[in-house]
Amino acid sequence: MICFFFYYAVSLLFFAVEHQSTMTKDLISGEVLKAVFPLLDGEDLVSCMLVCHQWRDIARDDYFWKCVCSKRWPSICKRPPPSLSYHKLFVTFSRSQPPQPLPPSRLSFDDLEFYIDLWSEQRLVFSEAVSGTALLRGIKNPPPGIPDALKVHLDSDDYKMTMQVEPRFSLSLGRMITVSILVSRKDTNQIARIVNQSHFGYVDGNAFRALAYDYLNFAPGHPFVSGIRAWVSLLFMANNALRITDVFGIEIDFCDAASSENEVLWLLDMLDWK
Q: Distance (Å, rounded) from C-alpha 159 to C-alpha 140?
């Protein structure tokens, strides 16, 4: 919304045009605008640039934008950036910038192989090498009688990688249940760790999921990336106080940081590959 000073300028302009016959309208209006523009904030000055060519040309004077910037960042007027105008400074940094879309990843799920091992104490209960494309396909034939809460979760738009477990198995909650996941890539013949002996420390009986997580290790080329977790979920049919029964699926996601296939691939590409 144009502030009071803008309306004041217009009033002065009409008064000047009416009473000063020896001066052109453009000259009168230009002098009035130059007196008022330094009093405006940035948003109003931007609006003024849209009025007409004359107003736009006058408002391009960087002096007016220096006045705007001095109100928002007074210190920058003491030692201005060497190659950035005050107009550019305001336009670039005065508003929050939308996140930039990621370019397509160099990595593909066709190149990936996941190695998943599940232990109950010292007993191996599940061990499988799964292709990246198989994880993308997900669970195509969920078992009959799947709990409604879990069905809603699997049908949601949240990005996740899921595989079906065959044959199904049950686990005792009184034992230490852990999972390890490695991933290899065919394009570079390297391998990285996603999860290392992580404990399923939380069982959500309402959602029919047991969850474990581990923090990802990134390559030295990404030293400031940290605190991103890989989550592993066991999907089961039923549970009681001592057991989770009929584990039929395993789910992997990186919901802390990645919510699309492209974002997951960028995240995996940054791992500490050996």
A: 16
173 close to 241: Cβ distance less than 8 angstroms = yes
122: its two tokens: 């010292």
Task: Indicate the helix (H) or strand (E) that contains 87.
Answer: helix 86-93
Output the pTM of the full model.
0.76
pLDDT in tens, 121-151: 989 999 999 999 999 988 888 888 888 888 8
Q: Is the peptide bond before 99 cis (omega within 30 degrees of 0)?
A: no
CA angle 258, 230, 237 (to 5 degrees): 105
* CA proximity to 60, closest of 87, 42, 35: 87
Among the residue ranges 1-5, 76-80, 169-173, 260-264, the one predicted with the least confidence is 1-5
Q: Which residue has the higher pLDDT, 218 or 53?
A: 218
Q: What are phi and psi of 174, to 5 degrees?
A: -80, -5
Is 216 in a helix, a strand, or coil?
coil
Is residue 41 exposed (0-12), middle (13-18) or buried (19+ Cβ within 10 Å)?
Answer: middle
